[in-house]
Design a protein that fits this description.
The chain is mainly alpha-helical. The protein has a single domain, classed as MFS general substrate transporter like domains (Growth Hormone, Chain: A), CATH 1.20.1250.20. It has 17 helices and no strands. The longest helix is centred in the last third of the chain and has 31 residues. InterPro entries: MFS (IPR011701), MFS_dom (IPR020846), MFS_trans_sf (IPR036259), MFS_Transporters (IPR050171). This is MFS transporter. It comes from Nonomuraea longispora.
Length: 386
Amino acid sequence: MVGGLPRPFWALWGGTLVNRLGTMVVPFTGVYLTQSRGLSLAAAGLVMGVFGAGSLLSQLLAGVLTDRIGRRATLSGGMLATAVSMLALGYSSTLPAILAAMFALGLVIDVYRPASNALVADLVFPAERPRAYGLLFWGINLGYAVGMTAGGRLAELGFVWLFWIDAISCVVFAALVWRAVPETRPEAKKSAGGFGMVLRDRVMVGFTLVVLGHALLYAQTMTMLPVAMTEVVKLSPGQFGLAMALNGVLIVLVQPLVSAWLGRRDAARTFAMGVAVMGLGFAMTAYVTSTTGLAVSIAVWTTGEIIVAGVPGAVVAALAPTHLRGRYSGVFGFAWSLAAVLAPLLGGPLLELGPKALWFTMGGVGAAAALGMLALGPAVRHRQAA
């Protein structure tokens, strides 16, 4: 054990960090499609929507694979498939080829998520899970801070660099997990059930709907925020990348100082407060006209991210039976995949109406998610205590 957490967890954490250091493609996809491939805003929104459609299937498929063939095999296989899809997208030049590559990428890029979430739940004692999920979140953003800064500069030299670096980081993650993380899948029970059992869990379904609101906010950072800042506000990719790096830097510096305190707070109230602050930050984006203004709005919604941090993963781990952790995590991840579909499909038309239409709507989504989580609070507390 290292710091109260098992060594395989730290191997998973290290692989996640390496992968996020190389995560440069998705945050700049909108810029890549409009500037490098010359697509219109509507076409770029369609392509990113196709990516989200593939991701919808990805989460559910990965949930089944995680419970059936194992956490380690699902995670490593998904990372290798992601590397191949990244390079295919980087060398696609026609709209049909780009659509096909983006669908394939969406289908495999999130396969690791249910497996990773289940691994943490399997490896870590319940009392330590909020800290463990928070550490993964911290590692993701430590890598993200570096990756976004480097990605913005490399995008100005040539987008192909982003695809190769991202692909290599996926291969490293796959190899590290395969070598250093043991398989933790429990023996399936005869009455194990499937997604039907998850969908009959009303607390989990309600929580998934709340997570959808949270995910819709965060999805803007990968979909419409880059487009809005470069196409409407007219920031360069380098300026946008520099401002976005503040998100990772703040999390890296601040989260370790507050994570222990936040971990002792009530999960439902903490989640509600965090998502409300995120909504406020995105609403402020309506008034951004410069890199400095963007940095201010990022600082606000990043505060919300820090507050939420490890709460969702710990809640899902508490709600899920051991033998169905993959499927529960898959349904949880489905909300994020659905957000990846809805964010550009809703955000594109809203952005064409004007920045205020988009960002005020996002503020409303944050407020609705916060209220929903407060309503779920008593049920979540009861399940966690049980």
